[in-house]
Amino acid sequence: MNEATQILFMQTRLVRLASSEWKITIRRVNEIFQKYDVFHYIANYWGIFHTEGDAAVLDDINSYIRHKDEMNG
C-alpha cells in the first residue's frame, strides 16, 4: 500500500473515531475537519502520526483545532 493510500485510511479512521468520541455525525466531523484544514494537517504529519495510535492522534487534532480556534478569536 502506498503512502497516499495509508494517509487516506488514517484520515478515514480518524473521522470515524472523532464521530464516535465527539458524539456527532460523520458529516459534521467532515465539516470541522475541512474548516480547520485537519485533512491537510494529517497528511503533513503522517510521518509522525503513523507511529502513534489513533487515540493519540485524535488528542493532537483536538489540540490543533483548539489552537486554531483561539487564533481566530
Structure explained in plain terms:
The protein has 73 residues and is an all-alpha fold. Helix content is 81%, strand content 0%. The chain is built from 5 helices and no strands. The chain has helices at 3-22, 26-35, 38-44, 46-49, 54-71. Helix 1 packs across helix 2 (26-35) and helix 1 packs across helix 5 (54-71). The protein is globular. The model has no long low-confidence stretch (mean pLDDT 95).
Key terms:
about 70 residues; mainly alpha; about 80% helix; globular
Outline the fold blueprint.
Layout: H1 3-22, H2 26-35, H3 38-44, H4 46-49, H5 54-71
Helix pairs in contact: 1-2, 1-5
Whole-number radius of gyration? 12 Å
The largest sheet, given as strand count, sense and whether it forms a barrel, is:
none
Low-confidence stretches: none
Strand content: under 5%
Tell me the overall shape.
globular
Spatial separation of the terminal alpha carbons:
41 Å
DSSP helical segment count:
5
Structural class by helix and strand composition: mainly alpha
What is the average of the pLDDT values?
A: 95
N-to-C order of helices and strands: HHHHH
Instruction: Bin the helical content.
Output: over 70%
- What is the number of strand segments? 0
